[in-house]
Design goal:
The two termini are about 45 Å apart. The chain has helices at about 10-20, 40-55, 75-85, 100-115, 125-130, 150-160, 210-220, 235-245, 265-275, 290-295, 300-310, 320-335, 545-554, and strands at about 25-30, 60-65, 95, 115-120, 170, 185-190, 205, 225-230, 250-255, 335-340, 340, 345-350, 360-365, 375-380, 385, 405-410, 415-425, 430-435, 455, 455-460, 465-470, 495-505, 515-520, 525, 535-540. Helices cover about 25% and strands about 25% of the residues. It binds one RNA strand of 74 nucleotides through helix 5, strand 6, helix 7, helix 12 and strand 19.
Length: about 550
RNA sequence: UGGCCUAUAGUAUAAUGGUAGUACAACAGAUUUUGGUUCUGUCUGUCUUGGUUCGAAUCCAGGUAGGCCAACCA
């Protein structure tokens, strides 16, 4: 049975192109500017571009659009490569727009020779003043009428470094009254006496996006150049330049960038969060950068699945964060090893358990795993740590956990009954005293008693200490950039909660970066890069779904 | 007083002139030694007004709403 899944509009275009023989294979590219770290929005573009060539045959290049030396750095190049690989994609060629600077320079000369470009001495303010507005036509620059010979001479001298930054530009000669603002003699080259991360000081003039991107696509014979909606107005210029230069006709297609609730997907704004220390770096686990999500414990599979589910379209959108959480829970449920960890401990003493006795109980590693996951031994004793929130002095209705006189199952061990509890002067509960039912041991329970609730625990004598970092959404509102004022006003002050002394199963000390765990009843966790065997640190990737919080609010 | 893009449940996305479907979310229930997982069920939708057609979410026209465009950024 073939499941007919609807095609997105780009797949439709490609299938049509393939069917009518326009192309034998398709070539796409992922074209980041190395001026920041990749985020969840880029993941969509990566999955799209690489996914398309995997599906239809062909290949995808990784091309860095590095035409602005003042913002670009090698650090970003390296992080981008790491992130794309981590997401599970391998590019055919690693390319750089800066590799084409000689060719692009020649393209500019071709345009000058055709009378389609000129050197303008106007300042950026003067250019802006003559540009007009969306509703009013612009006016020609006084330098627009220069001869080809003069333009050639001036452009060469720009290249030779005779002029200061900003004193001259090369502009296309199109139409200052055009309804598309981008066609009003767009700037093609500008002077920047700046060090480039790859070409060093070879150049002091650099091409603008419009003369670099489409031409790079063309040089690489990219068939489908896929970008986001804000480039729609550029398409007319993209096509104009290819036509006038008479080069390989790559075609541009635009889809809507993906927005996610309670976060931002803007490199500029993410950089602001880093620079203003609202977060602790690009890979802060609260960031929806690829590196932040990796550190937090997301899997590439879950991110790819997410991108797949949200699809591709042309309308404005705001995807629910709960879908991303669903995707990561679904994957982690299958692969994460279950362990017990007590995050907010309170002592529980089993009064009728033989003093100084210990025993091993066996607990499942992951019954949901493909190969069943097996079991592990866990040390049990008469003195345990349990979760403070699992005891209620005055239970609410439908409370299945511990309360005076209530019974509960200790996961993989015995059923216990709460007999007493001790408070300190401030009224904090310091110890809960229970009796246990020896015949109720997990695996050979002959007690005939059914406990409605099951809670997790660790033995005080056998547990290890760990630091646990709990993350919540970074913003308090769904669309922080859509609200009044600067988006940083809406940062969630409680997005990070650090627990210095949680208790974990001893074996968890050996957990390695990249390992995935489910702390039973608490969520999915992964060791942070700061973690050591002496001082284990865990990040909470995502909580478990919690229907009790909803029930308890009723 | 311009040009371009878009409009299907709360969210995202299918249906390509022929029964408006799927996922997430929400809600109800079953199972459960995780109030997890799994399973079952329920709720909610074609922006609007005309037109073409036997038949329109789909094609056409006019509205309306939202987005983008006036960086020597990409």
């Amino acid at each position: 049975m073939t499941e007919e899944k609807g095609l997105n509009f780009i797949e439709e275009i490609i299938e049509e192109d393939l069917k009518n023989g326009k192309y034998r294979q398709i070539i796409t590219r992922f074209p980041p500017e190395p001026n920041g770290y990749l985020h969840i929005g880029h993941a969509s573009s990566i999955c799209l571009n690489f996914g398309l060539t995997q599906k239809y045959g062909g290949y995808t290049n990784l091309r860095f659009d590095d035409t602005n030396p003042v913002t670009e750095e090698t650090e970003f190049v390296e992080s981008i490569k790491e992130d794309v690989r981590w997401l599970g994609f391998e590019w055919k060629n690693e390319l750089y727009a800066s590799d084409y600077f000689d060719t692009l320079y020649q393209y500019a000369i071709t345009l000058i020779n055709k009378g389609l470009a000129y050197v303008d001495d106007s300042s950026s303010e003067e250019i802006a003043a003559l540009k007009g507005t969306p509703t009013e036509p612009g006016k020609n620059s006084p330098y627009r009428g220069r001869s080809v010979h003069e333009n050639l001479d001036l452009f060469e001298r720009m290249r030779n470094g005779e002029f200061k930054d900003g004193s001259k530009t090369l502009r296309a000669k199109i139409d200052m009254a055009h309804s598309n603002m981008l066609m009003r003699d767009p700037v093609l080259y500008r002077i920047k006496h700046a060090h480039h991360h790859r070409t060093g000081n070879k150049w002091c003039i650099y091409p603008m996006y419009d003369l670099a991107h489409g031409q790079s696509d063309s040089i690489e014979k990219v068939t489908h150049s896929i970008c986001t909606l804000e480039f729609v107005p550029h398409r007319e210029l993209y096509d104009w330049l290819i036509e006038k230069l008479e080069i390989y006709p790559s075609r541009q297609y635009e889809f809507a960038r993906r927005n996610l609730t309670y976060t931002i997907t803007s490199k500029r704004k993410l950089m602001q969060l880093v620079n203003e220390n609202h977060v602790q770096g690009w890979d802060d686990p609260r960031m929806t950068t690829i590196s932040g999500m990796r550190r937090r414990g997301f899997t590439p599979e879950s991110i790819r699945d997410f991108c797949d589910r949200i699809g591709v379209a042309k309308r404005e959108n705001m995807v629910d964060m709960s879908l991303l959480e669903f995707c990561v829970r679904e994957h982690l449920n299958k692969i994460a090893i279950r362990r017990m960890a007590v995050l907010d401990p309170v002592k529980l003493v089993i009064t009728n358990y033989p003093k100084d006795q210990t025993e091993e109980v066996w607990s499942e590693n992951n019954p949901e795993a493909e190969n069943n996951g097996g079991t592990r031994p866990v040390m049990f004793s008469g003195e345990l740590w349990i979760e403070r929130e699992d005891f209620m002095e005055v239970p609410v209705k439908k409370w299945f956990r511990l309360a005076p006189g209530a019974i509960v199952r200790l996961k993989s061990a015995y059923i216990i009954k709460c007999e007493n509890y001790i408070k300190d002067k401030e009224g904090n509960i310091t110890e809960i005293q229970c009796s246990y039912i020896p015949e109720s041991r997990s695996g050979n329970d002959t007690s005939g008693i059914h406990a409605k609730g099951t809670i997790h625990w660790v033995s005080t004598a056998h547990a290890a200490k760990a630091e646990v970092r709990l993350y919540d959404r970074l913003f308090t509102v769904e669309n922080p950039t859509g609200e009044e004022g600067d988006f940083t006003r809406y940062i969630n002050p409680n997005s990070l909660q650090i627990i210095k002394e949680a208790y974990i199963e001893n074996s968890l000390k050996e957990a390695k970066e990249g390992n995935k765990y489910q702390f039973i009843r608490k969520g999915y966790f992964t060791p942070d890069k700061d973690s050591t065997p002496e001082h284990p640190v865990f990040n909470r990737t995502v909580t478990l779904k919690d229907t009790w919080v909803k029930e308890s609010r009723k």
